[in-house]
UniProtKB/TrEMBL annotation:
GO biological process, one term: negative regulation of translational elongation
Domain of life of the native organism: Bacteria
Domain Sigma 54 modulation/S30EA ribosomal protein C-terminal: 132-185
Annotated GO MF terms: ribosomal small subunit binding
Protein name: Ribosome hibernation promoting factor
Length: 189
């Protein structure tokens, strides 16, 4: 498994990197025998350290967790505990999908755009000069080909509010999202 352990304006020493590899490896070994790579990023927010980790599984699913603490090791431990809890919650489903799926999840490319907000923070909202939004950034993203159940699980594991996916059964683009009432919504055009 490949590890990428970095710090945003923080020096991540060899001892911390060894601790991350050991602890995260133990968590992943319990629940997923085939992780491909893990990214762990440390940063500082005010007086707290923040640890964000993302693990890509061979099935194509991604698990993400985030931890905060006043010490850097405690921030990682909180993050690893959240990752452990997520993977434990989805262990049965993850193992079932490994058996059903003989090939990794197929990914298709798409463009992602970040649009500028029309409001500049003032209370008065003026009519825009043009209906064309200003594009701030353009990035490439991947759209997985999943079943609806896998898409919901992927959204939960990643901690994302919404997931766009290609429905394996109907071969169309679908969306699952977290509703305000806590339930999951599914858009199937």
């Amino acid at each position: 498994m490949r590890y990428q352990i970095t710090g945003k304006q923080i020096d991540v020493g060899e001892a911390l990197q060894t601790h991350v590899r050991t602890e995260l490896g133990t968590v992943l070994e319990k629940y997923s025998q085939r992780p491909t790579d893990a990214t762990v990023v440390f940063s500082k927010s005010g007086h707290e350290f923040v640890c964000e980790s993302t693990v890509h599984l061979s099935s194509g699913l991604t698990a993400a967790a985030k931890g905060h603490a006043t010490e850097i090791y405690a921030a990682f431990d909180a993050c690893a505990e959240k990752m452990d809890k997520q993977l434990r919650r989805y262990k049965r489903r993850l193992k079932d999908h490994h058996k059903d799926r003989t090939e990794p999840v197929e990914l298709s490319g798409a463009s992602t755009y970040i649009l500028a907000s029309e409001q500049d923070g003032s209370d008065d909202y003026d009519e825009p000069e043009s209906l064309q939004p200003i594009i701030v950034a353009e990035m490439e993203t991947r759209i997985p080909s999943l079943s609806v159940g896998e898409a919901v699980m992927q959204m939960e594991l990643a901690g994302a509010p919404v997931l766009v996916f290609r429905n394996e059964k109907k071969d169309g683009v679908n969306v699952v999202y977290r509703r305000e009432d806590g339930n999951i919504g599914w858009i199937d055009p």
